[in-house]
Amino acid sequence: MGSTRQGFALMWKFLGRGRSRPASILLAVAWGTLSMMLLMGFGEGLRRQMAMGQQGLGNDPVILWSGATTKQWEGLKAGREVRFTKDDVAALRRGVPAIDDLAGEYSRWAVDLRWGTTSVSAHLTGVMPCYEHVRTHIPRPGGRFINDIDQAQGRRVLFLGPELATKLFGSAKPVGQTVFVRGVPFTVIGVMINKQQNGMYGGPDIAKANIPVSTFENMFGEGQFDNILYTVKAPATTKDVEPQVREVFARRQHFDPTDESALHFWDTVKNREMGDKIARGMEVFMGVVGGMTLLVAGVGLANMMFVMVQRRTREIGMQMAIGAHRRAVTSQIVGEALVLAAMGGYLGIGLSWLLVEGLMRVPVKSEALQFLGKPTLSIPMGVITAMALVGIGCLAGALPARRAVKLNPVEALRHE
Amino acid sequence: MNDDLIIRMQDVTKVYKSGSVELEALSGLNLSIAAGEMISIIGASGSGKSTLMNLMGCLDVPSRGLYEFGGREVAKLNPEELADLRNRSIGFVFQAFHLLPHATARENVEMPLLFAGMPAKKRRERALAMLGKVGLGARAEHLPTQLSGGEMQRVAIARALANGPRVILADEPTGNLDSRSGKGILALFHQLHREGVTIILITHDLQLARTCSRIVELRDGRLVHDGADLPPAPTEVDEDEGGFGERAAG
Ligand SMILES: Nc1ncnc2c1ncn2[C@@H]1O[C@H](COP(=O)(O)OP(=O)(O)OP(=O)(O)O)[C@@H](O)[C@H]1O
Ligand SMILES: [Mg+2]
Prior knowledge:
The structure holds two protein chains of two kinds.
Chain A: H1 2-14, H2 20-57, E1 62-66, H3 86-95, E2 99-115, E3 118-127, H4 131-134, H5 148-153, E4 157-160, H6 162-169, E5 178-181, E6 184-191, E7 208-212, H7 213-220, E8 227-232, H8 238-253, E9 263-267, H9 268-311, H10 313-321, H11 326-361, H12 367-372, H13 379-406, H14 409-414
Parallel strand pairs in A: 3-7, 4-6
Antiparallel strand pairs in A: 1-8, 1-9, 2-3, 2-5, 2-8, 4-7, 5-6
Helix pairs in contact in A: 1-11, 2-9, 2-11, 2-13, 3-8, 9-13, 11-13
Chain B: E1 5-18, E2 21-34, E3 38-43, H1 49-56, E4 64-69, E5 72-73, H2 79-89, E6 90-93, H3 105-115, H4 120-133, H5 149-161, E7 167-171, H6 179-194, E8 198-202, H7 206-210, E9 214-219, E10 222-227
Parallel strand pairs in B: 3-8, 3-9, 6-7, 7-8
Antiparallel strand pairs in B: 1-2, 1-4, 4-5, 9-10
The site of adenosine-5'-triphosphate has 15 residues of chain B, from strand 1, strand 2 and helix 1.
């Protein structure tokens, strides 16, 4: 053990004294770590951005629009429009037990909203309480979403998207205020948290005004739903539920259940699964590229250590001649590799952090950059990278060191 | 007198193998050196002087024959025991100095003390004392590149002396020096000899060899002369006037 300590002491004492080789090793390791950190950081940022955008639309809803028939059926001509009524929704509830949440949705463009002297034209929807989780209409603290009592009593309550709320109220507090919707007074009960939303219909949720379905009917009269929304108890089975839904409508409105154009389904589960696949593919790709980066860095490190030990063979011979144990020599070399790898790793992690922080400070409005999201440097990733490099450094030092001390001092001293 | 023998070689042979070619660099050598001697080993280039020094210095082991250093059979020691033996009992002075280029004179002299496990403070004191002894007290914090050849060799000698060795082995110590510096180094060896250190001086400079009390000559790996005087001519070594190591090593 004494010899190992002697080796470390010597290494530490002479580290970096007038030597350019260790500096280049350190920089190589720093570069490898930096590349790895940035690669993984941007990958993770992109993945989170995608997951967040996916969630923006909601938790696996299926959205259903009506179309027109294209096939003749039971003596009826083609081209009839399919309609969504309250009874249809009730029939769906009875006929398809696999369905979990179920709602008919009203929507109306360019509805006039007024608060004090501010007037804004917005998209108004009539929704059910289940939208809070199914469509992630999550209220900001201090507010709430439409609940069952609002729906049952047809209360005039208003839930606003954050962008709309800002347009209407500026910096004032919206909750509790009275807003006139087409001249009818409503109480604002909540404002939605801001959210990323990749998939949407009728515009982004942050710009919409929402009221209970019952209230909507009171204002505009009971009519056809603009669309229906449901979730399935086992999200993976939406594909199997789809024909059951078709069957219910086909029976009630007399059309061919195989008529594809009668009903349009937007199955977000399918989208999400696709997104998951892309994300997983990306992770594998990043892993492979990262692994290759590490490998290249490792091979470079090993090669540099090898050359460095070669250059110092005579020095090693001299040390052995004046009484260094083999362990004192190997620990110098391995110690140096370890210190260089660790310092390089540290430098690389530090630099990547600075770079990412710097990048975040630059205000970018570019869509591409925004889609890239916020690069997320993961500490475990940094630790894994640094540890891998330290391991490689250890090996890269140990192999040539073992070779060097196998020489007898005379051979080492004669080395050119 | 026998217990005072530092080096005892009996029928020592050293064979170098490179591929299928075998070269007998030393053949059947018998040589004993007692404590306190100052001996020079001379011979033409390629005669086996350095090979002999490497064996005597326990840097290498003989192919055949018996070699005892201070009564211990060297062939029976493992690499770590050999390292300790070199560290405590032998001081090397090489033609090429072999100083660490990025370490100061003091740090170079401290090296063998570090391998001996001496604590830092004592190491420093001892190294400074040794540098004072070789006349470099004022240059302790200089790097080798800031020193002259003669000064570098003095640093190497201070390093050789650091652990108070029983013997100093010097292989062509003046080979890279001008004649003035060479004379200075020789004077230093004589001074150390007077203080009781055993000195083995390898050279092919006869002027230098002549100053030693015992002269051994090698020719083609064999010992051909061992006495108090220079061997009688003919010898392959030049003997021109003032020939202080002018002849390049082969
Ligand atoms: N490691 C080695 N491998 C093979 N041959 C060697 C080795 N070392 C020395 N020799 C050969 O052994 C012989 C003796 O070499 P050595 O170096 O001992 O001679 P020397 O007397 O020191 O010569 P010089 O005065 O030139 O230094 C030479 O022929 C040399 O080529
Ligand atoms: Mg020689």
